[in-house]
């Protein structure tokens, strides 16, 4: 079984990102690059990180009208990402067009409800019901739109898996026992998420901000 851990490289310096990826690459399965990285380093940064030799997950969380998102997807074709995110709340037509515009080897997954939000935060955005219900609702929409899967927290992944058996489930908000949650509110351990059906485990600060990132990556790997 391949390593499901994608390391979130939310680092401002390209050199630091390269160095960290090089250090832990034998103990992770891929690299996740987000908006911060893309805005700072663009396509050049993605190509540089691709040379590490691991699959690239472009977590751009695209959210716009269908035409704009489809064109953005076409523009990132050349980077050959293994995974790209769009916001599921962008609607069915947007997700359909995003998937149609993506490269055939790129999995397009829909972000349902950010793992930094709890039920109260969600209510304040005007959405009624729990984060759990909202994730299931958006997962159904993403599946109907033909996406490959969704992003959700480890607290929902089992329920989503039960309703979408062959979906591809990306789970961030992971914290090894005893580590700080920071801004993440719907948190589980990497092992729990794996057992409950996660396909990809997104882990950032527990490795990147650890005193010894290699030891942290090894420790996480040993629990899976
Ligand atoms: O709902 C979401 C969607 C994406 N993320 C991203 O995952 C990583 C998590 O980093 P940690 O340091 O392990 O908290 C980060 O890049 C987020 O942008 C998420 O956390 N939640």
UniProtKB/TrEMBL annotation:
Gene3D superfamilies: Aldolase class I
GO biological process per UniProt: 'de novo' pyrimidine nucleobase biosynthetic process; 'de novo' UMP biosynthetic process
Annotated catalytic residues: 59, 61, 64
The Orotidine 5'-phosphate decarboxylase domain, residue ranges: 4-220
Keyword annotations from UniProtKB, A to Z: Decarboxylase, Lyase, Pyrimidine biosynthesis
Pathway: Pyrimidine metabolism; UMP biosynthesis via de novo pathway; UMP from orotate: step 2/2
Binding site for substrate: 10, 32, 59-68, 115, 175, 184, 204-205
GO cellular component terms, semicolon-separated: cytosol
Catalysed reactions, semicolon-separated: orotidine 5'-phosphate + H(+) = UMP + CO2
Subunit structure: Homodimer.
Family in the record: Belongs to the OMP decarboxylase family. Type 1 subfamily.
Job description of the protein: Catalyzes the decarboxylation of orotidine 5'-monophosphate (OMP) to uridine 5'-monophosphate (UMP).
Stored HAMAP family: OMPdecase_type1_B
Protein name (Swiss-Prot/TrEMBL): Orotidine 5'-phosphate decarboxylase
Provenance organism: Qipengyuania algicida
């Amino acid at each position: 079984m391949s390593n499901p851990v994608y390391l979130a490289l939310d680092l401002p310096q390209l050199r630091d990102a390269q160095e960290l990826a090089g250090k832990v690459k034998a103990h992770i399965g891929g690299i996740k690059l987000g908006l911060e990285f893309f805005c700072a380093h663009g396509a050049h940064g993605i190509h540089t990180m691709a040379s590490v030799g691991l699959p690239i997950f472009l977590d751009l969380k695209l959210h716009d009208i269908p035409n704009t998102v489809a064109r953005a997807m076409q523009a990132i074709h050349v980077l050959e990402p293994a995974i790209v995110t769009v916001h599921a709340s962008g609607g069915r037509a947007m997700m359909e067009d995003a998937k149609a515009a993506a490269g055939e080897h790129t999995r397009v997954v829909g972000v349902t409800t950010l793992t930094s939000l709890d039920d109260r935060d969600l209510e304040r955005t005007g959405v009624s019901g729990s984060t759990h219900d909202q994730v299931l609702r958006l997962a159904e929409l993403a599946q109907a739109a033909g996406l490959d899967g969704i992003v959700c927290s480890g607290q929902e992944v089992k329920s989503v898996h039960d309703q979408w058996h062959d979906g591809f489930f990306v789970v961030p908000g992971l914290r090894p026992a005893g580590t700080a949650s920071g801004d993440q509110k719907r948190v589980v351990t990497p092992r729990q998420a794996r057992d409950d059906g996660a396909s990809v485990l997104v882990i950032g600060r527990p490795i990147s901000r650890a005193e010894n990132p290699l030891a942290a990556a090894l420790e996480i790997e040993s629990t899976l």
